[in-house]
C-alpha cells in the first residue's frame, strides 16, 4: 500500500479523522464520482475527506505524450497524478492499494477484502462512497462488491452511517426520483476543474473525462426537475447501498428492484396516455 497524508501529519491521525471516505477502482474515479464530499470537506476543520484507490491503473488507454508508455511507467504516472489531486483537494489521507484489476475481480481473493476492511475500521467514516452496482465497468462493479464484503466483516459500530454507489461509467438519472441520492457538486467550481485537470495522462491520453464529468453534473442539475427552476448548479446522483451492509440482504435482488421500479414507472406513464 502507498499511503500519502497531504498535510504531513502522521498516518494514523490522517486516517482516523476521516468523516467522508471514497473507495474507487482507479485513480481519477474518486474525483469524478465523489466530488460532492470533497467539496463539502474542503477547508473545514470538522470534516475530512479520505480516498482509497484499489487498483494500479495499469490498463488505461494512452495516446499522445503517453502513447509509448509501458504499463509500469503508466502506473508510476498515475500514482503521481493521484497524489497531486489529494494535495489540491486537501484530502485527509490517500491510500493506493495497487492491485491488478484481475485480483479485484477475483471473488475468491480475500486479501483485497481484508485490506479494505482494515482501512475502513481505522477510518471509521460517517459516510462512504463507492461505485454503483449498475455501473458498466466490470472493475468498478467488482470494487463495489469487495467494499460491501469488507463492510460486512465489520462490527455494526465500525460501519458508516451511509453507503452510496456513485456515477462513473453509467449515469443514475434512470433511478426513480424518490430513490435518487442527490450529491450537490456546485461548491468551488474552480477546485472541481483543478482536480480533473490533474489527470493529464487520462485526458491527453485519449479520453476527455474532465469535460464529460462536468457535463454530466450540469445536465443532472438542469434535468433533475422538469417543472421547476434549477435547484442545483452541478449535481451527481448516487444509489443508496446502506442496506447491503446487512449480510442477509441479497445483493443482486436489491439492485434489480431499482430496475424493476424504474420499469414499472415507465410502463405506468405510457399507460396513462394510451387509449
> Count of DSSP E strands?
8
CATH topology: Rossmann fold
Order of helices and strands: EHEHHEHEHHEHEEHHHEH
Spans where pLDDT lies below 50 across 5 or more residues: none
What's the story with the biggest beta sheet? 8 strands, mixed
Shape type: globular
- Biggest sheet, spatial arrangement of strands: 1-4-3-2-5-6-8-7
N/C terminus separation: 62 Å
State the name of the first-level CATH class: Alpha Beta
At the fourth level of CATH, the homologous superfamily is LmbE-like
Counted up, domains total: 1
* Proportion of residues in extended strands: 15-25%
Q: Quickly give the structural class.
A: alpha/beta
**Would you identify the CATH architecture?**
3-Layer(aba) Sandwich
- The count of helical stretches stands at 11
| Integer average pLDDT | 94
Alpha carbon gyration radius? 19 Å
Fraction of residues in H or I helices: 40-55%
Provide structural commentary.
With 275 residues, the protein is an alpha/beta fold. The protein has one domain (2-169, 178-269): LmbE-like (Rossmann fold), CATH 3.40.50. The protein is 44% helix and 16% strand. It has 11 helices and 8 strands. It has helices at residues 11-16, 29-33, 35-41, 71-88, 101-105, 110-123, 138-152, 189-197, 200-203, 209-223, 251-272; strands at residues 2-4, 20-24, 49-55, 93-99, 127-131, 162-166, 180-184, 235-240. The protein has an 8-stranded mixed beta sheet with strand order 1-4-3-2-5-6-8-7, with helices on both faces. The longest helix has 22 residues, at 251-272. The protein starts with a strand and ends with a helix. The model has no long low-confidence stretch (mean pLDDT 94).
